[in-house]
Amino acid sequence: MINKIASAQNQKIKQIIKLKKSLKRKKAELFVIEGEKEIKLAKESGIYIKELFFLENIYQKEIDNFFNIEKYILTAEVFDKISFRKSPDGYFAIAQIKDFQLKNIKLNSSMEIMDLGAGTGLLSYFIAPFVKKIAAVDNSPSMLIEFKKRCGEFACETEIIEKDFNSEVLERKFDGIISSMTIHHLEDISSLLSRLYKMLNKDGFMAIADLDSEDGSFHSSNRGVFHYGFNRKDLKMLAIEAGFREVRFDLANTINKPNGNFTVFLMTAIK
Ligand SMILES: C[S@@+](CC[C@H](N)C(=O)[O-])C[C@H]1O[C@@H](n2cnc3c(N)ncnc32)[C@H](O)[C@@H]1O
Q: What ranges do the domains of the chain cover?
């Protein structure tokens, strides 16, 4: 069902504006996801999206088919009232904080997590409602500036750490380490996995998503790319050698490009 809202005095809009306060969001067990990419990713990851809101000029039939849930089309003035962002793309969703599993990893609200190669925070963003804190680690200052701009939207505490994981060490411990599409930029995977192992608390988890082996055509330029994806068996061996147990692989995603389809795995493991 699609509803149109043209007034900021609408009850639903008033309720959403209240959700701008993080305490209200926690109490209502709801969180906000903004941005087309983020909403699609959250949906694909099994997060329960309750309601969707679109700016009237960007509403697309494709989205209508994608989500079989309550949708609202908003005028620009109303959308502006609910949006957290300085330059919103016109997509906004309300999602429910339920128990969320990252495949076989259970997240909880006392966990401190590191997101390795956090970039602009796409992965951190929808892990945030389920954990206490996320430390975003990246070697790119410009990525971290983008991450920082979005910190207000995050449903947990955040910390930003500029580090080059190819050459620097981070003397910290976390309950979990997550990473998406980053480790193919890191040269020595054996050393990386040993370092990640040391950085985890006892029974801590690692959840790493990256490309399965590819022919080198995924990136338009392979500058800074050390691995054309990974062979799952070889990566599993390296993780076990680093000390990890319960090393498992799932298919996380398939990226369709004009030159081919590229699968992305999610490797999970426990210290
Ligand atoms: C493809 S992006 C992925 C960003 C984010 N995780 C996501 O899924 O949207 C790869 C990220 O890894 C970071 N990165 C590359 N090499 C790195 C290194 N040596 N140390 C830390 N971060 C690195 C890049 O700056 C970039 O933000």
A: 2-96, 101-270
Which mutation among 124, 137, 138, 253 tests ligand 1's pocket best, with the greatest number of atoms within 8 A of CB?
A: 138
CA distance 100 to 56: 31
- Residue bearing the CA closest to ligand 1, atom 13: 117
pLDDT of residue 59: 67
| Nearest residue by C-alpha to atom 11 in ligand 1 | 117
Residue located via tokens 């990226």: 255
Is any ligand 1 atom within 6 A of the Cβ of residue 35?
no
Regarding pTM above 0.85, the answer is no
Question: Ligand 1 within 6 A of 118 CB?
Answer: yes
CATH of region 2-96: 3.30.1330.30
CATH of the structural domain 101-270, one choice from 2.40.160.20, 3.40.50.920, 1.10.3720.10, 3.40.50.150: 3.40.50.150
Cα–Cα distance for residue pair 53/5, rounded to 1 Å: 10
Q: Is 139 in the pocket of ligand 1 (CB under 6 A)?
A: yes
Q: Which residues of 190-219 are buried (b: 16+ CB within 10 A; e: fewer)?
A: eebbbebbebbeeebbbbbbbbbebeeebe
pLDDT at 63: 61
Walk along the chain (271 residues) in steps of 10 and give the mean pLDDT of each run.
88 86 71 84 75 83 65 92 86 76 80 95 83 96 90 87 93 96 96 97 95 94 95 98 96 84 93 97
Cβ of 38 closer than 6 Å to ligand 1, yes or no, is no
Query: Looking at residue 198, what is its pLDDT?
Result: 97
